Amino acid sequence: MKKYIFDWKEKKSFKSASKQLEKKYDIESKEYDKIGLNPKNSWYEEMVLAPKEFIKLINPKKNEKILYCACGTGRISIELAKKGAKVYAFDISKGMLNKLKENLRDKSFKKNVIEIKKASLEEIPYKDDSFDKVVCRGTLDCFHPKHYLKFIKEMKRVLKPNGYLIIDLPWPQGKLGKISYNSKKCWSIVEIKKRFKEVGLILKKKNDVGTCHQLRFERLK
Question: Whole-model pTM?
């Protein structure tokens, strides 16, 4: 499991962490979809079971406009498109985006993936109040917690009032908190609620599956 954990440091800047992350996923993109497919693999829960629960938390509706931040190879984006949502997706890794395009090739639901872009969480390339739902999974944990709110504020910016932000975050007792993070630096659920409320996001639902909390917030008007 540790093989796939991103090595972050508290002193590392967002830009240096992003470059490391981009290089890592460009390299891993061709084999990424094979990770954890075997039920005996330690990543099975994270790569197979957790995404299914995450999609339930998103609860995509037909023609709903959804932004998938850091979309990777499109495992979840594709499922949202299958359900009729209008999906916009971006990632920092060109390799991952190429794999997403390959995974969409000749699929009948391809028309529901409206746009695919190379972009960063630091500057999401969309206007304010653009999306019904904004989604990000398996990415925030790649950065130090000091960066979280910057990303969250940017995701909230492009979310419509009363829209939903669905993300995941590591926590002290979770797998990432135990094997990779300094658990004292992970945010407790109490702290998560407090910090998000301060920026106008209210926690509505939580799942604990895979390596992280899965969280759904509603944006206040």
Answer: 0.89
